[in-house]
Amino acid sequence: MRRPAGRGTAINAIYEPSRSAPGAIADAANLSGYGSFQDSLRAPIHRWFTYPAGYSHRLVAAKIGHYGLDGRHWIADPFVGTGTTSVAAKSEGVNSVGVEAHPFVFWVAQTKLHSGHELAELSRDAGLVLEMSQALYADGLQCDGVWPALVYKCFDPDNLRRLYALRTAIRQSDAHPERADFLKLALTATLRIVTSAGAGWPYIAPSKFAERTVQRDAFAEFAKRCALMLNDVIATRAWGLPPSEHRLNNGDARRLTEYAGPGAIDLILTSPPYLNNYDYADRTRLETYFWGMYDSWGDITRSVRDRLIIAATTQIRRSDMDTVRRCPGVNEVSPAIHAELMAIIQQLAELRTVKGGKKAYDLLVAGYFEDMLKVIIGAYSILKAGRPFVLVLGDSAPYGVHVRTDEIIGELAVAAGFSGYDVEVIRTRGGKWAGNSQRHKVPLRESIVTIIK
Ligand SMILES: C[S@@+](CC[C@H](N)C(=O)[O-])C[C@H]1O[C@@H](n2cnc3c(N)ncnc32)[C@H](O)[C@@H]1O
């Protein structure tokens, strides 16, 4: 690659005082005090990638404060996502273990958790990459035939050339791998900022959104993103965080005992996928296509969907689920819960034959509870006696059939050996669909389920 003549213009941090220093513990009496994923759009480090499935770092700080954890303790998150629990635990000086199955989401968490950056070199590398990419772009670099069609639909052609030049410059730069990851994350976040398609959450469906009228320049937005991230590294360093240890695993929450020893953990805090048909693999399609990790639905199914617990009908192949359909694991620990689930599954199997979409909600329910039971059994093993397993969960109503997910998870845990559980409702859900005549009218909620070993 042709290198620019200069030695790279350092990108400097933008001074942006943070309102969210560590220790901003939520008022637990105030239900909304636990915050929402919106908090992560403002907080240093947490804001490096917008993951709507994420929860608030304030909840983690609140629970760490409530249970009096410090540097002698370990917190585990079996569904760590983009690392909210680990990053917040680090801010509080508590050790953490995180598990995430989705390779791209795991990489985001890992990049956010790294804090040993050499600031001057990071700033110089960012400047160098920007200069290299501008030179590539000026030389007429083309990107036809690089990606699946979805990527081309999401960007103005000229801006896409800029993004491709940035991608090429990062790949060709000789930045240390951890600094290259920092720059890759800055560029990843730039994608949804400069898209012309008004790419909507949670899925990318460019054709369904009006074209954005304001076009944002990819080079300028990438530079801003780097500066914001550099600022966060400087700000969090200034907090003088107490040292703590953090382990992240690109693994499977159903095999928790592989990542922590028996009785090693003081608090498990997590938000598992809800039983609500949200496809995590599809949510990150734009990003994973852009980086060339995957290039088709089948590729994403093999590399991501098949590794996740069952929580979306897009993960289901009916022919593979004859055994799971009968929920043998649940039957072994609780015949009463098994009977309740079988009635729901039967009802959903019948509704499937008459309802639009013919969704495999019957198998979704069976697969979800069979998988969650494996997580519960592993959680029991790695927790210290008397310690809590806290889950943020939503209940659900596929085809209008209510599944009291939060209580069933609590009851399953007690049947599997835990001593008791409590459900705290933090929010009602589904209000935005109220006017939709196609949708069920069952009121839904989001809860914090606290299970004690
Ligand atoms: C609700 S999100 C958690 C988000 C996280 N609290 C955050 O703030 O980023 C659930 C996560 O579980 C992950 N997941 C699904 N199945 C998994 C499995 N078997 N093992 C580990 N992680 C899994 C999904 O990829 C998703 O990132």
Q: How many alpha or pi helices? A: 15
Architecture per CATH nomenclature, i.e. the level-2 architecture of the domain at 60-100 and 246-277 and 309-452: 3-Layer(aba) Sandwich
Q: Strand arrangement, largest sheet?
A: 3-2-1-4-5-7-6
Q: What is the straight-line distance between the termini?
A: 58 Å
- Catalogue the unreliable spans: 1-6, 14-32
Classify the beta-strand content into a percent band: 5-15%
Radius of gyration from CA coordinates: 23 Å
Beta-strand segment tally: 7
CATH class of the domain at 60-100 and 246-277 and 309-452: Alpha Beta
What's the overall geometry?
globular
Features:
453 residues; alpha/beta; Rossmann fold; 15 helices; 41% helix; disordered N terminus; binds S-adenosylmethionine
Produce the secondary structure layout.
Elements: H1 57-66, E1 74-77, H2 84-91, E2 95-99, H3 103-113, H4 119-138, H5 149-154, H6 157-172, H7 177-194, H8 218-238, E3 246-249, E4 267-270, H9 280-283, H10 285-290, H11 297-303, H12 328-333, H13 335-354, H14 361-382, E5 388-394, H15 405-415, E6 420-429, E7 444-452
Parallel strand pairs: 1-2, 1-4, 2-3, 4-5
Antiparallel strand pairs: 5-7, 6-7
Helix pairs in contact: 1-2, 4-6, 4-7, 4-8, 6-7, 7-8, 13-14
The protein binds S-adenosylmethionine.
S-adenosylmethionine binds at residues 51, 53-55, 79, 81-82, 84, 99-102, 105, 252-254, 271-273, 280, 308-309.
